């Protein structure tokens, strides 16, 4: 499967408040290359999450999440959010340019190729991963003409012009 080139996305969500009416929890993000369009009508997308990962656990309780499709210049963002064993994501978001999604409240990068805000429709266990199918609630193209960031043979790559 390393011979299959893939786009690179940042999946984000915000922990729900600990109590009703309380402040939202921490923002969480992860780099994903297993992301795809499922349906145009209704608009559905799918992301594959490692079972038991922090994002898998969070999206089991938080149905709202966002996707930022990364541009070629966002290689460091991809690397930052793919680190294993980190305790907190707070510092990872500290110097990123992002806004809060209108529908999800989750961070969306202001200079991504495209952004999507989603609500989980279904979760499917598949081996050691969970396939999360989300309905697209909103979409934007902050930097539609930038070249994409791709992942191929275990490395991030840029497409030749």
Keywords:
mainly beta; single chain; 45% strand; 161 residues; 7-stranded antiparallel beta sheet
Give the topology, please:
Blueprint: E1 6-7, E2 9-14, E3 27-32, E4 35-40, E5 43-50, H1 54-61, E6 64-69, H2 75-80, H3 90-93, E7 98-100, E8 107-109, E9 114-126, E10 129-140, E11 149-152, E12 155-158
Description:
This protein has 161 residues and is mainly beta. Helix content is 11%, strand content 45%. It contains three helices and twelve strands; from the N terminus they run βββββαβααββββββ. The strands form three sheets. Strands 3-2-6-9-10-5-4 form a seven-stranded antiparallel β-sheet. It has a three-stranded antiparallel β-sheet with strand order 1-11-12, with no helix packed on it. The protein has a two-stranded antiparallel sheet with strand order 7-8. The model has no long low-confidence stretch (mean pLDDT 93).
Shape: globular
Order of helices and strands: EEEEEHEHHEEEEEE
* End-to-end gap: 25 Å
What percent of the residues sit in helical stretches (DSSP H or I)? 10-25%
The unreliable regions are none
Q: What's the total count of β strands?
A: 12
Q: Number of helical segments?
A: 3
Rg over alpha carbons:
15 Å
Based on secondary structure, the structural category is mainly beta
Biggest beta-sheet profile: 7 strands, antiparallel
């Amino acid at each position: 499967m390393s011979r299959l080139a893939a786009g690179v996305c940042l999946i984000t969500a915000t922990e729900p408040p600990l109590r009703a009416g309380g402040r939202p929890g921490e923002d969480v993000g992860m780099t994903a290359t297993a992301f795809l369009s499922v349906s145009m009508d209704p608009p559905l997308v799918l992301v594959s999450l490692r079972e038991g990962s922090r994002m898998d656990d969070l999206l089991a309780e938080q149905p709202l999440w966002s996707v930022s499709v990364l541009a070629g210049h966002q290689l460091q963002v991809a690397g930052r959010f793919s680190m294993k064993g980190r305790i907190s994501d707070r510092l990872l978001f500290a110097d990123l340019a992002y806004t809060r999604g209108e529908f999800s409240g989750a961070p969306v990068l202001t200079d991504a190729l495209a952004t999507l805000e989603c609500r989980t429709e279904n979760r499917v266990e598949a081996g050691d991963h969970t396939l999360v199918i989300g309905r697209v609630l909103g979409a934007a193209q902050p930097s539609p003409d930038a070249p994409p960031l791709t992942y191929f043979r275990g490395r991030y790559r840029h497409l030749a012009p």
